[in-house]
Specification:
The chain has 196 residues and is an all-alpha fold. It has nine helices and no strands.
Length: 196
């Protein structure tokens, strides 16, 4: 055995981490952030609390780390060759993310709790919001490079135009976000941004 290599309890086993991640997602989606605790997650994952604390120092860090892995891991910046194609694929990916069965229950609670809990809100922004936006902005940057969008494009506004309508329709209104809606939304966004 090589010197300095962790053994036994010091090794963070990926199978244990995976069971904890699943327990966090299940527990959050079923009970909400307020009732979620390290104890409940440990019991659900069938591990000791120490297994959680070796990975994350607090409930906030645990929750946001798990949600970040889930959320940022599924975000993409598709490159179809056209802005309209990239945008439409991005919209579909966004819908898949917020409509995932567990996450569709988690997201509204996470947003509400982030407004009440500044520490959670900052972690949410730094580990989920910013990384997802940094990936998505690539479709607009490429469209500018191809001459499909103006060079003085307001990327922040453009990103809000992608996420805002879908989030509002799906999460706030509880209305269907079908393929026809996404096609029409993509056309409206392309027309608005290209004309800006």
């Amino acid at each position: 055995m090589s010197p300095g290599r962790p053994t036994g309890a010091a090794v963070l086993q990926s199978t244990v981490t995976r069971s904890i991640v699943e327990a966090v997602l299940d527990e959050f989606s079923e009970t909400g952030y307020g009732r979620l605790s390290m104890e409940r997650v440990a019991k659900r994952a069938r591990v000791g609390k120490s297994a959680l604390y070796r990975r994350w120092p607090s409930k906030e860090e645990m929750v946001v780390a798990v949600l970040s892995e889930f959320s940022v891991g599924v975000s993409e910046a598709p490159d179809t060759g056209t802005f309209r194609g990239d945008l439409r694929a991005t919209l579909s990916g966004f819908v898949d993310w917020i409509d995932e069965p567990r996450f569709s229950k988690i997201l509204p609670d996470l947003v509400a709790e982030s407004a009440r809990n500044p520490r959670l809100g900052e972690l949410h922004k730094q580990m989920i919001g910013i990384p997802r936006r940094e990936r998505s902005v690539q479709i607009f940057q490429r469209a500018v490079e191809r001459g499909e969008l103006p060079e003085d494009m307001d990327f922040e506004l453009a990103l809000d135009l992608v996420a805002g309508p879908v989030y509002w329709r799906s999460t706030v209104r509880g209305a269907d976000v079908d393929s026809d809606y996404l096609d029409r939304l993509a056309d409206v966004i392309v027309a608005a941004l290209a004309g800006s």
